[in-house]
Amino acid sequence: MITFPWYRIDAVDPARHYTALIGLADLRSITVVPTFSYYGYLIERQLRRSPGMMGYRTAMELTRLRFYHLSAWADPEALHRFIRTDPHRRAMDTLEGWIGTATFRYWDVKGAELPLDLSRESFRLAPDS
């Protein structure tokens, strides 16, 4: 697995609570990797300028066509605004049907727990979490 470093966007208050997100996308075919990567690039640019974005990291298991995302947001509204805004919204429409399993989990996290770490948070992707 290739895990990228945490990219901090904004200063974090260790005592404050934030909205955390872990996402997993399994692609159906290697043929979608170029399109998925293109939108990944656009979405990363969007993340870096989105109001309420505190920080994020991504990871991938390319041989399994599996891609992970971890992020922390000021509040749920900031996260949902990001999801509904292009290019993220357009990517969801374009990639519909090409992503096999997509799993997303949200939880409350204290600033002192940031940055998020995939090895520490991957349990949240289990079906019963």
Word description of this protein:
The protein has 4 helices and 6 strands, in the order βββαββααβα. Strands 1, 2, 3, 4, 5 and 6 form a 6-stranded antiparallel β-sheet that branches. The protein starts with a strand and ends in an 8-residue tail after the last helix. The mean pLDDT is 95. It has a single domain (2-125), classed as 2-Layer Sandwich (Alpha-Beta Plaits). Strand 4 (53-61) and strand 5 form a beta hairpin. It has helices spanning 33-49, 76-83, 88-95, 118-121; strands at 2-3, 7-8, 17-27, 53-61, 66-73, 99-110.
**SSE arrangement, N to C:** EEEHEEHHEH
Strand content: 25-35%
Q: Give the radius of gyration.
A: 14 Å
Q: Would you give the CATH topology?
A: Alpha-Beta Plaits
Straight-line N-to-C gap? 23 Å
CATH class: Alpha Beta
Main β sheet profile: 6 strands, antiparallel
CATH architecture: 2-Layer Sandwich
Number of strands: 6
Mean pLDDT: 95
What is the total number of structural domains? 1
Q: How many separate helices?
A: 4
